[in-house]
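tokens incoming
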């Protein structure tokens, strides 16, 4: 079978595709990083060495293998080698606390934990019931199998676990999201027209993030080249993209914001770009328009969840009047809106977003109750995943998001959507960035409070507060507006509103 045959089939696996690429285009670069580079033949061999060692150590099919560290070629090889051995790759966020890391390792049942130097130091004081191997160390090299052995073949079913991704721990205990080979195959297969076969894809977000994997995996599945950044820096991204003649990139909104703000952005040669994508956080219409105007290639926004459900797609380049939306449901994706009683809302009304598609998680690892709470079933028994967002469809079927359901502020019985207030704040010339959260109020139950990053020194919070409140309804007015040097964000750019609420409480 050729790689083209496998990609045209109903189901294949990424390890098998990489093996076929190694035969057909062995000298082509598969992964480039700051710690080296691997051709497809070299990547295939590295995966074999890892898979044989894992099987030698008794890895059970579907068992987790944890990886903690900064993105690198070695990290990517461990992820892919785990799949070839029949395991479930389990990348963990190195920014988690040592207690969270230990808890996630115990939860997933990993017998092997691969760490870089920083993650190894973080775990040093915690007893972990697993073999800890330092990536790139002499112990790691000694652990690998010899280059003349091949792993035992693994019969992979579509429903078998491909990876476990843990949700953010900022709102509680992280939950392990189990994604199947079928789900990942759908991510690869749906990109038949994405041009990934000859792509040079900039990988500028962490490998533990689903945001990254939805472009990293198709790049390798179709035989392109992935260029991995160990840590994102806006100017360095432009330098690397220019040097490698990058064609594709997945970036989160704050990364686009930082890149477009570079004073000499226009001097970089980005003419090789064909496709830029974005997901994971609200992407302002003004920023989308700026990217479309000044950066060659299509700009496409995806809206969805790590858990799966439904995905919407917005071709920003082709829909300049719809940049305030997140697009229309992808082909084969069913997205509906429901009310607080779990009933579908009428056309044009707002509701909680639920979605169904071929790209849905198996469930949360070891948490059937949490899995059930994330599901909604229609009157025909079809399973949907709750997205946790509130939105509405416009007359053309484009989805317009309001806010995360949990971020909705109910003040004096009125619903207040932080995004409405953030849009007004963001338009003020003295505001570089902002966020609005709900805080307790004796008079109203909850009341909105804003945080803003000043666009210049000496920005007057009282003046901005007055200007903002003059533009919103009486029930929407901000109770306070507080300056902050930088908004707290996750590694993929999500604003950590719980931390802002905690900061406000600490000031009371």
């Amino acid at each position: 079978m050729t790689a083209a045959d496998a990609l045209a089939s109903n189901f294949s696996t990424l390890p098998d595709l990489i093996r076929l690429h190694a035969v057909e285009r062995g000298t082509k670069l598969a992964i480039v990083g700051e710690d080296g580079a691997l051709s497809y033949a070299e990547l295939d061999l590295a995966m074999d060495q890892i898979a044989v060692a894992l099987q030698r150590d008794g890895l059970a099919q579907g068992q987790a293998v944890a990886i903690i560290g900064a993105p690198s070629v070695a990290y990517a090889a461990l992820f892919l080698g785990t799949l070839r051995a029949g395991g479930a790759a389990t990348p963990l966020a190195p920014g988690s606390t040592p207690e969270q890391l230990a808890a996630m390792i115990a939860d997933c049942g990993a017998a092997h934990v691969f760490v870089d130097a920083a993650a190894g130091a973080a775990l040093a004081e915690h007893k972990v019931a697993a073999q800890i191997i330092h990536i790139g160390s002499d112990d790691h090299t000694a652990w690998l199998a010899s280059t003349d052995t091949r792993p035992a073949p693994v019969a992979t079913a579509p429903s078998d676990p491909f990876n476990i991704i843990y949700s953010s721990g900022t709102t509680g205990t992280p939950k392990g999201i189990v994604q199947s080979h079928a789900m990942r195959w759908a991510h690869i297969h749906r990109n038949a027209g994405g041009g990934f076969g000859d792509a040079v894809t900039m990988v500028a977000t962490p490998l533990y993030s689903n945001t990254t994997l939805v472009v990293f995996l198709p790049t390798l599945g179709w035989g392109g080249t992935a260029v991995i950044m160990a840590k994102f820096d806006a100017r360095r991204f432009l330098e690397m993209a220019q040097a490698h003649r990058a064609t594709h990139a997945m970036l989160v909104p704050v990364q686009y914001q930082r890149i477009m703000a570079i004073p000499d952005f226009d001097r970089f040669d980005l003419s090789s770009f064909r496709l830029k994508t974005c997901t994971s956080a609200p992407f302002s219409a003004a920023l989308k328009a700026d990217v479309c105007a000044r950066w060659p290639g299509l700009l496409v926004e995806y809206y969805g969840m790590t858990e799966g459900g439904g995905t919407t797609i917005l071709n920003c380049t082709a829909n300049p009047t719809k940049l305030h939306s997140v697009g229309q449901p992808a082909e084969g994706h069913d997205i509906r809106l429901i009310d607080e009683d779990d009933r579908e809302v009428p056309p044009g009304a707002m509701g909680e977003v639920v979605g169904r598609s071929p790209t849905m998680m198996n469930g949360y690892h070891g948490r059937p109750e949490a899995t059930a709470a994330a599901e909604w079933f229609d009157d025909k028994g079809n399973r949907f995943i709750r997205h946790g967002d509130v939105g509405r469809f416009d007359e053309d079927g484009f989805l317009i998001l309001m806010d995360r359901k949990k971020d909705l502020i109910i003040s004096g019985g009125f619903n207040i959507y932080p995004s409405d207030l953030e849009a007004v704040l963001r338009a003020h010339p003295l505001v570089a960035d902002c966020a609005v959260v709900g805080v307790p109020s004796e008079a109203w139950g909850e009341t909105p409070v804003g945080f803003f990053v000043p666009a210049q020194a000496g920005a007057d919070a009282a003046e901005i507060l007055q200007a903002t409140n003059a533009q919103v309804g009486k029930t929407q007015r901000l109770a306070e507006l507080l300056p902050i040097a930088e908004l707290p964000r996750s590694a993929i750019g999500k604003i950590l509103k719980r931390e802002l609420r905690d900061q406000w409480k600490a000031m009371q």
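note: Residues 40-56 form the longest helix (17 residues).
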